[in-house]
Amino acid sequence: MTPHAYLCLVLHNHQPIGNFDGVFEQAYQDSYLPFLEVFEPFEALRISLHTSGPLMMWLADRHPEYVDRLRMLVEAGRVEIIGGPQYEPILAMLPRRDRIGQIQAYGNWLHRTLGVRPRGMWTPERVWESSLTSDVVDAGIEYTVLDDFHFRAAGLRDPQLTGYYLTEDDGRVLRVFPGSEHLRYTIPFQSVNATIDHCRDLAHRSPGVVLTFGDDGEKFGTWPDTKVHVYEKGWLRSLFQSLTANADWLKTVTLEDAITHTAPVGKVYLPDCSYREMTEWSLPVAAQETFDDVSHAMEDEPQWTDLKNFVRGGYWRNFKTKYDETNEMYARMMHVSRQLAEIEATGIGASEISQIRDDLYRGQCNCPYWHGAFGGIYLPHLRNAIFQHLIAADNELERLSGVNEHSVQATASDYDFDGYQEVRLSNNRLCAWFAPGRGGRMYELDVREIQHNLLATLQRRPESYHRKVLAGPNAGGDEVASIHDRVVFKQEDLDQRLQYDRFARKSLMDHFYDNDATLQNVARGEATERGDFVELAFETKLRRGADRVQVQMRRDGNAWGIPISLTKAVTMHAGSDRLTVAYLLENVPQNQPLHFAIEMNFAGLPSGADDRYFSDVNGHRLGQLGEELDLENVLGLSLSDRWLGIDVALEINRPSGIWAFPIQTVSQSESGFELVHQSVCVQPHWIVTGDENGRWSVEFELAACCEQKSETVHEQEVIRL
């Protein structure tokens, strides 16, 4: 048989919910538009294209001419539109109703906009579990693309990693293409001949073979150095020219073509898996470093080629344990999803809940729920966007449930699935969430009017790539490098900025420090913790009145080995944008001063701009929010963000010292390693001694007042220094 092969080129273009408009535009100019312009003249070539819902909707709004050109290519049979869940969620983290709903919602949108209803689907981040099969099929999808890595994990060998396979769950049958990892690394990082020669070799071995390349469209222009390589130096044009020149034996086809004209290779059941790098990123850091070290040490072993097919890292769901912040977003999303399902079951009209469902779906966008070679959870604007949509959905659900300015609620449940009960205080202005089982901390504070969670914070923690930071920058050589190989510093001295937190960056965290502890000790995480109140469980009572609710939390613990009882009570009034917080320490020595501090953190209040600032109780400005403050004998502090339109005010009933400092992380993004502003830490602190009864107390109000927003914001100031 004459050697010949079919090549499915599947592109995945995506920008997440909450990304800056300028980032969308830059990616459009650098990747999406030039790719289309290079592709259009090559009339014999065919591709499959997935554009995520957030990006496609942005394109339809900002560049309808691009959508028109795309529709013409679809009508000409040159581009197959691939669908998927509308706002690019990880399907494994959604309840079944939302998996099916998201896929069907985007299919309907594509049908209205481009005139086609997709038969195939892009699986976000190729995160796969066998139980997804039936839901995907029930949503109307016939086929999808995963990685050949999934198939290797099922025991298949290289000669079998072509064509497509059938998989099944609960009697539903789905076709699955194994995307080639080899092609992911040759395209576009190696010469065009490397791709053509690879296809030719497989065509000789297995005439009629179907090969699949499925990967990010951003690697064609948006990833570092690729714009010059792919377009200015002509790599993509050369690829299309070579594919055209070799069309007598190598034919580009869509996934739909392959399904229509070729038979399945066989049947397979795939393990829970993702692409190779994702399985590594989901491991705990120590395990990730061990995995990396062992894998490199084994590379020269004769049996490693066979053995590595059965060696993989972790499981995507474990990002919810690797990052508590991921689980917080996930739990919040699940709460909204359940509430929506319950209110829908009452028979309420679809028109009344359509916007709620859209906000829920937007709040499921995957990018800030994990972290790997990209910003992910480390990007505050992406986390903020998730909470913005979830809070907007919650606001409407509360309205439909009859909540108004006279309503105030206190409920308790295991909201975050950790085996402990959490407490939720809510009125029409604020929604506060507490974890009595974890130090009585407040871990979420929603300002309903601006749909903002003031506690969408991030803990500074070790990452495996911090070893690269300590080793120094490396651009990856003279050739264009894969994003996984580049080590580029976007600021100097990042190795000196690595700091780690022992505890989460939440609020109402109760510390006992040495009496000579300083701002610098505390800010760098070097102050010794002398109490046992920060993480351990508190006993809890809820009190409900006609116009107020209160959560009271008490712990009998110790500081410096001295038995101390700490009680804190948080009161919320109907219609109020303030929380009243009262602390009582008992059994405090009269003759041994103790250093007590209450930690609070506030997220979404960026540094580096004059319209984001501290001020004292008299309204005098004390500097930008990225600065450090060491105040003495003050009665409060305010943090203002004029663009967000909020003033967060702390008003204390006794003279206090206050430390304030920024929380910054060294994290990895597509373009390099960078310092990212995550939140502002504010710690009122006192040297306390007991009265004649061994008691000491303090009360303060925490207010979140919304004001008029400023007109402009510099995008880079939002997340970076």
TrEMBL record:
InterPro entries noted in UniProt: A-amylase/a-glucTrfase_C (IPR015179), A-amylase/a-glucTrfase_central (IPR015178), Branching_enz_MT3115-like (IPR040042), Gal_mutarotase_sf_dom (IPR011013), GH-type_carb-bd (IPR014718), Glyco_hydro/deAcase_b/a-brl (IPR011330), Glyco_hydro_57/38_cen_sf (IPR028995), Glyco_hydro_57_N (IPR004300)
Keyword S-adenosyl-L-methionine listed: no
Keywords: Carbohydrate metabolism
Gene3D superfamilies named in the record: 2.70.98.10, 3.20.110.20
Glycoside hydrolase family 57 N-terminal domain span: 9-271
Domain Alpha-amylase/4-alpha-glucanotransferase central, first and last residues per copy: 314-395
Limits of the Alpha-amylase/4-alpha-glucanotransferase C-terminal domain: 414-700
SUPFAM superfamilies assigned: Families 57/38 glycoside transferase middle domain, Galactose mutarotase-like, Glycoside hydrolase/deacetylase
Tagged with keyword Heme: no
Family: Belongs to the glycosyl hydrolase 57 family.
Identification of the protein by name: DUF1926 domain-containing protein
Organism: Novipirellula rosea
Lineage: Bacteria, Pseudomonadati, Planctomycetota, Planctomycetia, Pirellulales
